[in-house]
Amino acid sequence: MTVLDIRNLTVEYRTPRGPFHAVRNVSFSLEAGERFGLVGESGSGKSTTILALMRMLRGGMITGGELLLNGRDLAAVPDARYRTIRFAEMSLVPQGAMSSLNPVLKIGRQIGDIFADHRVRHTPEARRRIIGDLLARVGLAPEVQDRFPHELSGGMKQRVCIAMAIALKPSLILADEPTSALDVMVQKQVLATLGRVQRELGAAIVLIGHDMALMAHFVGRLGVMYRGELVETGPVREIFTNPQHPYTRMLIDSLPSFDRLASFRTAKRSPVLQRGRV
Ligand SMILES: Nc1ncnc2c1ncn2[C@@H]1O[C@H](COP(=O)(O)OP(=O)(O)OP(=O)(O)O)[C@@H](O)[C@H]1O
Fold first, then answer.
1. Cβ(47) to ligand 1 under 6 A?
2. Residue ranges making up the domain that contains 133
3. What is the mean pLDDT of residues 148-166?
4. Does ligand 1 lie within 6 Å of residue 264's CB atom?
5. Across the beta sheet with 90-93, what order do the strands follow?
6. Ligand 1 mutation target, pool 17, 24, 48, most atoms within 8 A of CB
7. ipTM, 2 decimals?
């Protein structure tokens, strides 16, 4: 079943020098449970693409194309109803947990607000248990709900964001460089957690990143963005063995040879990974 179908998405930002096309004619689709990676240099339009989907563009607007989520045309959804789609049907794991968590509210309250916003009713005891279970699923102690964000490490905060993203069991998770602010070991652990919960949920995921090696281990299919356009898409193995666009070749060539080999081997050996379900 097709979860997401983006057709010819075009996004413009208003700038003092006139409209700027940050995304032009981008098309790709995702099946249920699939993992798709969007790579590209800084400013190539990766974040703009998923912010457009979430209807969270600041200073920008969609000027062309269609966005279909589970077969529904998102353009037809009024702003007021869009709130019910976020978290319930698609959710965003943001780049910096720091800026997305409210510093003055305890973690439990912030997760609880998602249920409250979507009118999911629980007794206080049930809600505490459900939030505790959710935290446990992302590798955190249930008691983390009684803490404030500043009492948690960067990795823990990012895990909280993952817990929030899966709270209402969406069919699509959008993750914008969810681990870029973390050190390498924590990065791998948090990404592994994201992968596990995504698989358990059967949700499709769009992972944004610029680390080709990390991406190759996580996703089944890659899309390469360059100056607002999606210049190449395909299974990881194909992209690595037969890159078509000069920018893709450059991305692969810039990997240390060990990473290149390891990425290629993983993609080659694992038929499961090629289907994006690891
Ligand atoms: N609010 C805005 N107003 C004007 N231009 C913007 C705005 N937000 C982004 N842009 C421009 O749109 C282009 C695409 O930005 P975007 O953040 O989508 O890129 P990205 O590929 O996600 O980059 P990064 O990897 O650095 O996050 C860039 O040239 C950026 O400067």
1. yes
2. 2-274
3. 95
4. no
5. 90-93, 172-176, 204-209, 35-40, 221-226, 229-235
6. 48
7. 0.96
Q: What number of H helices and E strands is found in the chain?
A: 12, 10
Record the tokens describing residue 4, joined without a space: 């997401």
Question: Does ligand 1 lie within 6 Å of residue 19's CB atom?
Answer: no
Instruction: Verify whether ligand 1 is closer than 6 Å to residue 17 (CB atom).
Output: no
Residue 229 has pLDDT above 90, yes or no: yes
Provide the pLDDT confidence category of residue 218 given band limits of 50, 70 and 90. very high
Look-up of token digits 């990012």: 158
What is the tally of structural domains in the chain? Answer: 1
Are 82 and 55 spatial neighbours (Cβ–Cβ below 8 Å)?
A: yes
Mean pLDDT of 44-71: 95
The DSSP symbol for 80 reads H
Query: What separation in angstroms does the CA of 59 have from each of 21, 65, 194?
Result: 12, 18, 30
**Residue 30: alpha-carbon gap to chain centroid:** 13
SS3 content of the chain, % helix, strand, coil (to 5): 45, 25, 30
Rounded to two decimals, what is the model's pTM? 0.91
CATH number of the domain within which 82 lies: 3.40.50.300
Q: Ligand 1, closest atom to CA 40? A: 21
**pLDDT exceeding 70 applies to what percent of the chain?**
91
Decide whether any atom of ligand 1 lies within 6 Å of the 33 Cβ.
no
- pLDDT tens-digit map of 174-187: 999 888 878 888 88
Question: Reduced to 3 states, what is the DSSP secondary structure of residue 98?
Answer: helix
CA atoms of 201 and 224, how far apart (whole Å): 26
Residues in the chain: 278
In the prediction, which pLDDT does 264 show?
A: 56
